[in-house]
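Backbone description:
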Amino acid sequence: MNKRLQDISDLEAQRIQENREVVEVMKEIQMERNIEYHSKPFDHLTTKTLELSLKRRELIKNTDFCYLNLL
């Protein structure tokens, strides 16, 4: 019985770690998409969307991208 509980616990820990890795990869992919999107002209955007995009562009410029392997 204890062996089964330990196996279940180990599998749960493994899944949690795999999920964390997937989340990190997805964050990196989303940031790359954000960089690509926000490096394009904003002529087509409305006022509020333009303001948000400019703020996001500024945030991206101020972010340290070493962890994204973009260098």
About this structure: The helical segments are 2-38, 47-61. The first helix runs from residue 2 to 38.
